[in-house]
Amino acid sequence: MNRVLLMLPVFGMVALTIGIALWMLKLRYRAVLQDGLSPAYFKLNRGARLPDYLVRVTQHYENLFETPLLFYIAILFVLALNLNDGVYVALAWLYFVSRLAHAYIHTTINKLKWRKNSFLASGLLLAILWGKLLFDVVSG
Question: Are the C-beta atoms of 99 and 60 separated by less than 8 Å?
Fold first, then answer.
């Protein structure tokens, strides 16, 4: 297994997280400067209703610190245990692509059915990744 090919989806997830964070920051400024949101809202994140465009991106940013953490941990295990298997590379790339799709859908068109399907796909891929990891550790 080429370690670089396994690490690139991890770097992609990190870049996605940073990109969503920067977009959220830009939208926060927009909400304050153009849509009249009081900057005081951000002291405790309460006391006002956020515009929908900001809610979607904020929710997605928070989501990137939930189940993707399991992806990062699994890849660390794969690397630390030197599990040389192209299946891990394929699963990592598929997971990253499914998270990209989920990010696009959630933060733009927000079609619930599409969003649900991309989220379920990423969850299934994560479950397969962990299942394979468990099998390889136990049988190894």
Answer: no
Go through the domains of the chain in sequence order and give each one's CATH number: 3-139 (1.20.120.550)
Two tokens at 88? 């891990």
CA separation (Å) from 7 to 10, 14, 48, 75, 93?
A: 5, 11, 41, 8, 9
- Tell me the pLDDT tens digit for each residue of 22-75: 999 999 999 999 999 999 999 998 889 999 999 999 999 999 999 999 999 999
Q: What is the pLDDT of residues 96-117, one digit of tens each?
A: 999 999 999 999 999 999 999 9
Residue partners of 90: CB distance under 8 A and separation at least 6: none
